[in-house]
Amino acid sequence: MKRNTISTAGQAPVEPKSDRLCHALAHAANGFRVFPLKPNGKTPLVKAWQKIATTDEGQIRAWWKQWPDANIAIATGDWLLVVDADCKNDQPGLQSLIMLQVEYEIPGDNYEVNTPTGGKHVYLEIENDPRIRNSAGSIEEYPGIDIRCNGGYVVAAGSVLDAGEYTQNDQPVNRCPSGIADIARRSCGRPGKSYARKLLTVISGGVFDLLDPLLERHSIDEFGEVA
Q1: Could you tell me the pTM of the whole model?
Q2: 20, 138 in Cβ contact below 8 A?
Q3: Mind listing the domains of the chain with CATH numbers?
Q4: Three-state DSSP class for residue 21
C-alpha cells in the first residue's frame, strides 16, 4: 500500500521560520505523527513525546501557536521505519544506502528527506513489529546506516538548523522490503560504537550501579533522533 505524497502545494509561500505549522499539518495529513522540537534544534519541546505525538490538527495548531518557530519531529514506529544514511564525520552513509537500494530493491520513487549535512532519510511502510526499535552505528555491513522505528523520531522536512533546511521529494512511502526489516530487526540487538564507548567507561571506572540507567538512556536518548 502506498501512502499519499507529501506536499505543501497550494499553500501560500511564507518565510522559512513561519511555515513550520504548514509543514507539520501536511505531514499529519499524510499519517505522520508529529510533535515540536526546539527552534533551530532537534530536542523535543514536549515531555512524553512517544505517547503524545499526534496527527490531530487541533493539538498541532496549539503547539505551533505556542512555539511558531519550532522545528518538526515525526515519531517513527507503528507503521513507519526510517533508514538514515549519515554522512557526518566522513561516514559512507550514501554509498551504503545505494548498496541497500540495489540489493533489496528499494523503489526509486520513494519518499525521502535530505538533511542539511548531506545525509538522507528514506521512509518505508512496515508491519508493526515491537522488536524493531532504533540502532546507530551497529550495522557493520552497511556503515553509516542507522535505523529509526519504535521509540524513535526523525527531524522532518521543513525544519531548519544552522547548517540548512530539511527538504523532501514528493514521492509516496513504499512498503519496506523484507530484507531491510530483517536487517533492522537484527541491528537493534547490537550496541552501536558510541554506546560501547560509554559502557567501557562505566566498567573501567567501576561504576556498575550506573549501568541500568545507562541502558535506559541508550534505548531512548542516544537512538531517539537522527541528524
Answers
A1: 0.79
A2: no
A3: 16-190 (3.30.720.160)
A4: helix
